Amino acid sequence: xxxxxxxxxxxxxxxxxxxxxxxxxxxxxxxxxxxxxxxxxxxxxxxxxxxxxxxxxxxxxxxxxxxxxxxxxxxxxxxxxxxxxxxxxxxxxxxxxxxxxxxxxxxxxxxxxxxxxxxxxxxxxxxxxxxxxxxxxxxxxxxxxxxxxxxxxxxxxxxxxxxxxxxxxxxxxxxxxxxxxxxxxxxxxxxxxxxxxxxxxxxxxxxxxxxxxxxxxxxxxxxxxxxxxxxxxxxxxxxxxxxxxxxxxxxxxxxxxxxxxx
Length: 262
What we know:
A 5-stranded parallel β-sheet has the order 9-8-10-11-12, with helices on both faces. It has a 4-stranded mixed β-sheet with strand order 6-5-7-13. A two-stranded antiparallel sheet has the order 1-2. The chain has helices at 19-32, 42-45, 61-72, 123-132, 163-173, 187-199, 221-236, and strands at residues 2-3, 9-10, 36-41, 51-56, 77-82, 89-92, 104-109, 113-117, 136-140, 154-158, 180-183, 208-209, 259-261. Helix content is 31%, strand content 21%. It is α/β, with parallel strands linked by helices. It has 2 domains: 21-41 and 55-109, no CATH class; 113-236, 3-Layer(aba) Sandwich (Rossmann fold). It is elongated. The longest helix is centred in the last third of the chain and has 16 residues, at 221-236. α4 crosses α7 (221-236).
């Protein structure tokens, strides 16, 4: 959670139970340039059945500079936070640097980048939902002029509803082996596209999803956009897509809790 000197905040630490108190304490940290640790027993105070320790620090300017250098070239990095000793505070780890034992290490990766091929009434809600969750939505007008340097966080959705344009887009996208390439449209049309692509020697990889989207009972453009964005989130975050009610373990993936999206 980022807390600015003027009181503005970005991000959160819980469902809203402790943020106000942390923000008040953070003003003292900003004024005195000293770290602080707050402990909350939410079992007694808020009924959330847990305990949380919050480390507050003045974020070093070099941390932001180093982080920007990585994200500008869409390169993931690791940030380390040390809570005691001479190296207390946060910084970006060097590539081959081993973290100090007992510290918190967080992987920070570039925002998900979603290329949208094709126009239509569902483009606007896809853009809005992408912006809401911190993604970069990029609408592609001319497929032939696009040069993509793919990475682990690059995705695409093909939805021109024109056979020729969809064919050209898939011919360009599928060889990139992206983790997610979605095609909006009926199965019959998908099968025809796939057969023609296979005839050209294009390999269909596991990252191809068609028809695109989760089964949410969608009909409207806004609902379709929700289904597609949800499927991308599920794939890239290794989610199951099942109802949390059916989950027999913690609702949070403990292996992923130390991962931050920038």
